[in-house]
Amino acid sequence: MIGSPRRHEAECESTQALLAPDDPEGAIATTDHQTAGRGRLGRNWIEAPGTSVMVSVLLRPPPERRAQELSLVAAVAVALAVEDATGLAAQIKWPNDVLLARRKVAGILAELKEGAVILGIGLNVNQTREELPLDAKVAPGSLRTVDGRERDREEVLTLVLGRLEGCYAVWREGGLDALYDDLGSRDFLRGRRVTVDGAAGVASRIERDGRLRVDGEAGPLLVESGEVLFER
Fold first, then answer.
1. Is position 1 within any domain?
2. Which residue has the higher pLDDT, 199 or 146?
3. Domain encompassing residue 199
4. What is the pLDDT of residues 89-132, one digit of tens each?
5. Residue 166 shares a structural domain with residue 100
6. Cα dist. 222→44, 73, 205, 213, 215 in Å?
7. In terms of domains, do 122 and 221 share one?
8. Domain count of the chain?
9. CA dihedral 132, 135, 140, 144 (to 10 degrees)
10. What pLDDT band is residue 42 in, cutting at 50, 70 and 90?
11. Close Cβ partners of 107 (under 8 Å, ≥ 6 residues apart)
């Protein structure tokens, strides 16, 4: 079961560092404030204390599954949880961001440690506009800035963990293809002009194997990983 045991620190550098590879599958670490939170590509994850859901989860995917797909599995889970919490449609920006009203409200970081995957999730819940970073590459938001409501972060965490447990079980059984209806229908980049590591084109879709298809002048490009910039 995802969510037990739980390790909580009022403040820590990063919840990713609170879990060890020998912890049981489903163990989680949470905090009220990270002093050195990390996102993809070495970026910092900055949040005002006591405003976000910040959780890391230890998973042991079966050998027949591609562990790198877990970022998208988690993105689907968080998007569904955001929809549960707000009643609004969420979108997934490949490979690991969740957007609400075209603003990034969540990011995901998956790290491999000695055969285990530690999946870090940061979800902006109660920040005001003034508490969000001004220099983010994707315009940031929180659940509160979208609909004006403050929420109990523990209740939001429960929604996230419940959705993650369900999505993880489906993925273990059937792979990313089994989650594709929920993934493909929330594909934020589809049809947008994008640049991926210097190559420009139109994002066609997230493929069923998790790669992003970009149609450029030289033909289709299937992107395994990288930074995607898009035209708003």
1. no
2. 146
3. 193-230
4. 999 999 999 999 999 999 999 999 998 999 999 999 999 999 99
5. yes
6. 28, 19, 10, 5, 9
7. no
8. 2
9. 20
10. very low
11. 39, 40, 45, 96, 97, 98, 121, 122
